Amino acid sequence: MTTTSAGPGGAAAPSDDLPPTAVEDEVLEAERRRWTPLRIAAWSAVGLVGGLGWVMLALVRGETVNAIWFVFAAVCTYLAAYRFYSTFIERRLLRPDDRRATPAEHSENGQDYLPTDRRVLYGHHFAAIAGAGPLVGPVLAAQMGYLPGTIWIIVGVVLAGAVQDYLVLFFSMRRGGRSLAGMARDELGRVGGAAAVVATLAIMIILIAVLALVVVQALGESPWGVFSVAMTIPIALFMGFYLRYLRPGKVGEVSVIGVALLLFAIVAGGWISESGAAEFFTFDRTTLAWGVVVYGVIAAVLPVWMLLAPRDYLSTFMKIGTIALLAVAVVVVRPDVMAPAVSEFAGNPAGGPVVPGPLFPFLFVTIACGALSGFHALISSGTTPKLVEKERQTRFIGYGGMLMESFVAIMALVAAVSIDRGIYFAMNSPAAMTGGAVDSAAMFVNSLGLTGVNVSPELLAGTAQSVGEQTIVSRTGGAPTLALGLANILSGLFGGAALMSFWYHFAIMFEALFILTAVDAGTRVARFMLQDALGGIVPRFRDMSWRPGVWIGTLIMCGAWGGILIMGVTDPLGGINTLFPLFGIANQLLAAIALAVCLAIVARRGSVGALWIVLVPLVAVTVITVTASLYKIFSSVPAVGYWAQNSAYREALAAGRTSMGAARTPAAMEAVVRNTFIQGTLSILFLVLALVVIVAAAVAAIRSLREGGRPDFEDDPVPSRLYAPSGLVSQPSEKELEKRWVAEVGAPTRAGH
C-alpha cells in the first residue's frame, strides 16, 4: 500500500497526489457542534415532543391512551440518543480514524471483503439483525401492560443494545473482521475463549430453532399464508439471477419488480385459499417444521447471490417500508390502547397464561431483540465489518441500525396493545388452556378476571372470518397477534374492513420474510463458526469453500436446531410459551458474553474513564439473565421452572396417571418429561458457560487496568486510498471533498453505487 503524507486540512493523502481521504477531524467536529438558531429550535422541539410523549405514557391516566404517543416518545428519544450519546461514545471511547483503511479496503477480495456504500450496507445489516425477536417478544410481553415493555425497549436500546452492536462492530473491524469467538479467544485466554465458542454455538441452535418455530406457528393450517410465503422463494431466486446475469447492479429496478411480485403473491394467496387448491397448501405444524429444516439446509449451501442476498433486498424494503407505513398509520388513525399501563399479571409471581413468571426478570428476557440482542453481535462481527468503507460509518450502521430495530419492537407492541384484550389472550394462550375452540376459549379468557374484558365466541369467530382464517384461537407465537393488530391499524388508513384479510396476510408474509432472513443468515453464520471450531481438529474444515465441509457443517447445525424446532412444535405445553423464555435468556446471555469481550478490549486499551459505558449494560444484563436462569432451574412453580415441571410429570407417570394438565395422554406426559429435561439442561449449560466467560473477562480487565493497558490485537494501520462520507448525511466539508474526488479521480465504483 502506498505511504501517505499530510494532505490539505491535515487529512492524510496518498503520496501519488490523490485528494485527502477524509476531512480533518477538527473541521468535521466543528460542523457537527455548530449550533444555529434553526438547529436549536429543532432540538428544542424534539425534546418537548419527546418529553410530552413520555408524560402521556407514564404519568397521565385517563380512560384510554392514544397510540400516537408511543411514536413521539420513541422517535424523539432515538434522535437524541443518536445525536448525543452515540457521539459521546465515538469521541470518548472509540476515536475512529477515516484516514485509516478498513478491512473492506485493505483486504478487498470481491467476495467477503468489499467496500460497500454505507446506505446499502445499512440495509444489509438491518436485514440480518432484525428477525423474529423485535416482532414476537413485545407481543408476548404485552401481557404485563404497555409501560414496562415500552421503557425497557427504548431505554434498553439506548444504553445497552445499540452500544453492544456499535462496539462489537468497531472492534471487529479494527481486527480484520474477526468473529466474536475469535476476539474472545484473543482476549480471554484458552478457557474463556473455549467457553465462548461452545456457548455461542449452543446458543445459536436455540435462537434459530425459536425463529423457525415462530414461522411454523404463523403458517400452520393457513393455506393463504403458506402460499404467499412459499412464493417468496422463487421470487428471491428470480431476483438473484436477474441481478447476476440479466441486469447486474440494478438493485432499485429489481426491488420494484420483487415488491410487485410479493403483493401479487398475497392477493393470489387469497384466491388459492378460497379455491379447491387450498388443500394443497394446508399443512399441520409438524410437516411445516420439516419443510423449514429442509429450506434451512438448501439456503445455507446455495451461493449467497442466489437466495440470501435477494431475500435481503426484499426483506429490507418490506421491513423498513412496512414499519414506516405503520408509524404513519398510527399517527393518522390514532388508535386507542386497549391494554392497561401495568396489567393484573405484572405483580403475579406466577405470571400469566402467555408468559409465566414475574415481571422481573421475565419481561426483560421476553423482550430481548429490540432492546438488547446477543444475536446481533454475531452479525456485527460477521459480514458487516468486512464491508464497512470508513471507520466513522460504524456509528450510523451499528448504533443507528439497532435504533431502527427498537422502533420495530415499539410498533409491534403498539399493534399488540391496540387490539381487544380478550382476543389477545385467546390468541396467545396455549391450546391446553383455551381448548382450541371459540366456546372454550371465550370461557377461559372470561375466567381470568380481566377488568373490562367480556369476550364472546361470536367475537372470536367473527375476527377469524374478517382476516380470512379458520380460527384465531391459540395462534401462539406472537406473529398472528401482530398481524391482526397491524391489519386493524392499516385497514383504518387504507381500505377499511374490506381489506382486513389482505393486510393480515400481508403482515404474515412481512413477518415470515423478517424471520426467514434471520434463519438463512443465522444458519450460515452458525456453519461458519462450527467449521472454524472443527478446523482445530481437521484443518481442512477452515476452508469455507470446501464443499464436504460446507455440507457437513450445514447438516449438523440444521439437525441440531431442527430437533429443537420439532420438540417445540410437538410440545403439549405450547412450544412458544415454554421455549421463548429460554430463547430470551440464551440471547441475552450471548449479549453478556459480547459485552464481556468488549469490557476486556476497553480495559486493554487503557480507557479507564470510559469503562462504565460497557460496565453498566454488562452488569444489568448479567443480573437479568442470571436471575432468569435461576428461576428456570430452581423455581418450585411448575409453570416457571423446567425441573419442577419435569418432576411433577415424572411423579404423575410413576403414580399411573394417564393425563395431567395440558398433556392428555401418557405419550404427551412423556414428551413433557423429555422436553423439560432438554430445556432444563440447556438452561444450566448456557448459564455456566456465560459465567465462565464473564469471569474470564473480568480477570483480563483487572489485569489490564493494573498494568495501565496492554498491547492490543488490532491490525496494524494501513493508509486509506478511498473517500466516503462518515455518516448517512454528508457534512458541508465532506460534500466539498467529494466533489474534488469526483473531479480528480472519478465517480466511485464500489458496491452499491
UniProtKB/TrEMBL annotation:
InterPro entries: CstA (IPR051605), CstA_N (IPR003706). It is found in: Cell membrane. Keywords: Cell membrane, Membrane, Transmembrane, Transmembrane helix, Transport. It comes from the Bacteria. The chain crosses the membrane at residues 40-60, 66-85, 126-145, 151-171, 191-218, 224-242, 254-273, 288-308, 320-339, 359-379, 399-419, 502-519, 550-570, 582-603, 610-634, 682-702. Pfam families: CstA (PF02554). It is a multi-pass membrane protein. Residues 66-628 form the CstA N-terminal domain. Residues 1-15 have a biased composition (Low complexity). Residues 1-21 are annotated as: Disordered. The keyword Transmembrane helix applies. PANTHER family: INNER MEMBRANE PEPTIDE TRANSPORTER, PYRUVATE_PROTON SYMPORTER BTST. Belongs to the peptide transporter carbon starvation (CstA) (TC 2.A.114) family. This is Carbon starvation CstA family protein.
